[in-house]
Amino acid sequence: MTDTYAGSYDTTEGRVFTVMGQDWDTITGNKAGETERIVVNMGPQHPSTHGVLRLILEIEGETVTEARCGIGYLHTGIEKNMEYRHWTQGVTFVTRMDYLSPFFNETAYCLGVEKLLGITDQIPERANVIRVMMMELNRISSHLVALATGGMELGALTAMIFGFRERESILDLFELVTGLRMNSAYIRPGGVAQDLPAGAEEKIRETIKSLPRRFKDTSDMLVDNSIWMGRTAGVGVLDLAGCMAIGATGPILRATGLPADLRKSDPYCGYENYEFDVITKDTSDAYGRFLIRLEEMEQSLNIVDQCLDRLQPGPVMVEDKKIAWPAQLSIGSDGQGNSLDHIRHIMGESMEALIHHFKLVTEGFNVPAGQAYAAVESPRGELGVHVVSDGGTRPYRVHYRDPSFTNLQATAAMCEGSQIADVIAAVASIDPVMGGVDR
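The chain above was modelled as a monomer; its predicted structure follows.
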């Protein structure tokens, strides 16, 4: 029986050698490496990505002559599934796309739905402040994963330990506020699912005071480190023209020196009221993107601090009861549930309120026919959502413009002509999340 996974075979382009581990010596006598191209499959695995990516590399010696991305290994059909769930249930789906920045997925979707409903200006101030605060905390946790996994792939194992150590403190805050460490479905059309629990503001303030001191461990270890710079400086170069050609955004674009940030150019959720800097570098390489993420975390801490100062008592859900899901939750012995006052009202005082609650939760609300586009500045760049309604209680179409998908196009431009070892650094600097790529 012929082994289809080893040996060689002839094609119209010539003889192709298939080599597995320990099989290389079987073809060295043919001098294949000297006369034929060699195609290496890097993956499907996690080569500096968050999710499964396949890189098809054509090499000559140690030099990459052609690089292609094979995607689709993490396809979930989320966008299609959303057409069979009502508008609020959609949040539970979108939060799982780019699972390292779920609050950005949720906010972009809710901003699109609120545009269609015409209630953008009716969102309570407290809800907007909480949204900004959760997104900026999420930006920090996402960047920490990028720094941790990128460092690990390049051999800086201590960077991984530092990164995940700090991320744990952020995830503890997410759990405190939403009940979950990720995929919380906390931000909903009209506001947020529930108000901050007692003691949350103090815990958040305490955490953000300790983080700068702990971030310094990573920066002291890697910034200006000759070994780290040898692996990242001048590696994965993509200039401004290249970014514009493929639509790259986020740290990749800002590393070319262009201060492109939707929080400044097209503010949402009240970002125009916050003071912060857009971090740029002019290196256009992996080292510059690393520095940008380090400094952006400091800026996010600054924004969170401003959010805590801006928090004022008030509602966290839009007043229109035809849209607003009950947001007055309380913690009971059985976990989380609606407040006792709300349950008492719908179960014992008003049949009309009970019917309305039942229909709102099971059927959802109608969204006027039309389409809208909303975008936020996620940790990886412009995260946009195109929402289409036919006037019913479920989306007609929801499509995401995920920055990981767009930025992944830069792989070929960054890697071709470089060494195989530099491919890892280049992909790590892109920081793609494959859940957002494949959806």
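The chain has 18 helices and twelve strands.
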